[in-house]
Known about the structure:
Layout: H1 2-22, E1 31-38, E2 56-67, E3 77-83, E4 87-88, E5 95-98, E6 102-111, E7 116-117, E8 119-124, E9 129-130, E10 136-137, E11 140-146, E12 150-151, H2 157-162, E13 178-182, H3 190-196, E14 204-210, E15 213-218, E16 226-230, E17 236-238, E18 243-245, E19 251-262, E20 265-275, E21 294-295, H4 303-307, E22 313-321, H5 329-334, E23 336-341, E24 344-349, E25 367-378, E26 391-394, E27 401-403
Parallel strand pairs: 16-20, 21-22, 24-26
Antiparallel strand pairs: 1-2, 2-6, 3-5, 3-8, 4-6, 7-12, 8-11, 9-10, 13-19, 14-15, 14-19, 15-16, 17-18, 19-20, 22-23, 22-25, 23-24, 25-26, 25-27
Amino acid sequence: MKKFYILAILTAIFLVSCEKETGTKPVNSGLARFDIDFAEGTNLGTEANPLPAADKYSFVVNITARNYDGTVNTDERTVEVQFLTADKTPRSPKKLTLTDGVAKDVTVEFQRGAEKERVVVLEIESEATEMYDGTTKNLKTGITGVSDTIYLPFASIYTVQSAKGAGVGSDSYYEGRNLNLLGEINKDLPALVSNYGDNDRVPMVVTSILEGGFTLQQVGRDDYSAIYLYTHSSPFVADVKETKLMEPGTLIEKCNGSVFSFYGFNELSFPTFDPVYNADGTVKVDKTLIPPAVNIDSILGNSGEMEKKESMLVEITDVAVGQFPDNDSSYTEYGQYPIVSHGKTILAVTMNTVPSFDPLSYRDKGVSICKVKGILKQHRVAKYGISGQTWILTPRDDNDLIFVGDEKCSE
């Protein structure tokens, strides 16, 4: 024990003497970071003037390994190129080897970027590590580099809804990403722009309040223009006078949330949203901006075309309630039942929004409803013995069911 104390004292004396000789305390040494420098003259945009919208963005960068003292670390190193949120294109390199500490004129490409993006470089261990499942993997060392910010346009409803894979109920390519959605810039709608007053942007408008959320649509756009916002409870808005339940026609300036595909139905989950306010501080509501229902008789059964109308207000005509068992669990548990329009079937759900309507009593009446309006949704596993049927029409209220003989049938 005595020898231990003597050794500890001698070590302390040595460290103190080193500090007195150099005048500094011991510092870290070796590789500290990777510098990522864009090619001279590269336009990265600014917050006020982001880069134009594009399907793909391409940049040339130089990557340099730096020690703690700022000198170049010349050891050969393997790095992986990533981006903070955007998707790497197939042509963009996944792995690079730095020779003499540098990789020059590297072309990096990404797609589906929004708002702010950065190029990220991570060092990878040269030797593979055996994982718990018997596979091997080159782990990351924790040494990284991050570029300056690339400023991109804000995302919109169209950004999220149009970026889908092929097939029924395809998820958005933005699945899992947290996004800010803003109204689109549209100089062709000057009256709306002057009324809205924000950099040529036109508003997004609430088209329906449904169970656990609401639907939002971009004014002035047709396909891929609507999305469901899942709030988990009734959505409320607050102004200078009161906090109240949101109503259709409410104008929204901006919303934020995580993109999530619920069995093929794209939604913005647990969002925050900023309403548009009038000059007196009250929430701006304009029901005239709710787009009229789009007739989808001709595309029923065409999932590719119906994808474009997801979450939009649509209508079908000459409707009969189809056949289904009284005790079918899809009906008893979820309220889903088939309706038929011009020989094509879609599911309907009315139990929450039109509880007075009893579909059981209309199964044998043939065409008894001249129009059914509602929000178009889908659910990959929704079915009534109908092969491939995943689309659901949800009327907003009693007014969306127009029965044969009603004068509104001719409207």
